Structures are given as C-alpha cells and as structure tokens.
C-alpha cells in the first residue's frame, strides 16, 4: 500500500506474480508466519488475496531490534524471489532457526 500507520504492514505481491495464499504457505514452510491479506482494490478473492500482512509485535516481543527486523526482511525477500527453489527455502529455514534461537519466546 506504500505506507503504514500502525504496527503492521501490507505487502503487495502482484509484481512477484504470487498470491497471498501462496506466499503465506511458502513462508510458513520456512517457519516465518505471515497472513494472507487483501490489498486495496484487490483483484483476487478474499480467500486467495494479492498481499500478505506482516506484524511487528511478534518480533518485538522476542526482542528483535532493527538489525534483526532487517535480517528477517531479507529472508522473506529471498523466499519470495525464489518460490520454487527448495535450496533457498531450506537455507532460510536454517537461518530463521538460528535467529530465533537467540531470541527465545520465553527467556
């Protein structure tokens, strides 16, 4: 949508030729949780969507700061840039495990 006014942001996946449903499943396989979400004037059905919603509360609750948020953004981009590359998915999954191990949910 080009802007955010809250703790969540919306990513338009149309340029990537991916649906929100596909991206949600792909990122889930890499242990990154996002939600499929409609974008303004979304051409897709509500159960498919053209976007994903990413919320920052789960990151800040774990103790992520700007550096970790940027790392996570790059990992998300890696998966969305290569949705059919299992090697990328496995690498990202490993990096997510390392990152989250440094910031346990309950410390």
Write structural notes for this entry.
This protein is α+β, with helices and mostly antiparallel strands. It has one domain (8-101): Alpha-Beta Complex (Aspartate Aminotransferase, domain 1), CATH 3.90.1150.10. It has helices at residues 20-29, 57-62, 66-81, 86-101; strands at residues 8-12, 35-37, 51-55. A three-stranded antiparallel β-sheet has the order 1-3-2. The radius of gyration is 14 Å and the shape is globular. The model has no long low-confidence stretch (mean pLDDT 93).
What is the CATH superfamily?
Aspartate Aminotransferase, domain 1
Give the overall form. globular
Please provide the ordered H/E string of secondary-structure elements. EHEEHHH
Q: Roughly how much helix do the residues carry, as a percent range?
A: 40-55%
The CATH topology, please?
A: Aspartate Aminotransferase, domain 1
CATH class: Alpha Beta
Number of strands: 3
SSE topology sketch:
Layout: E1 8-12, H1 20-29, E2 35-37, E3 51-55, H2 57-62, H3 66-81, H4 86-101
């Amino acid at each position: 949508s080009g802007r955010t006014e809250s703790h969540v942001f919306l990513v338009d996946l149309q340029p990537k030729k991916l649906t929100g449903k596909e991206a949600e499943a792909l990122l889930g396989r890499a242990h990154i949780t996002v939600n499929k979400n409609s974008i303004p004037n979304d051409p897709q059905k509500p159960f498919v969507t053209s976007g994903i919603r990413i919320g920052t509360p789960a990151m800040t609750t774990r103790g992520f700061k700007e550096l970790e948020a940027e790392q996570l953004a790059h990992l998300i981009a890696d998966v969305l840039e290569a949705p059919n590359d299992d090697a990328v998915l496995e690498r990202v999954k490993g990096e997510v495990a390392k990152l989250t191990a440094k910031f346990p949910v309950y410390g």
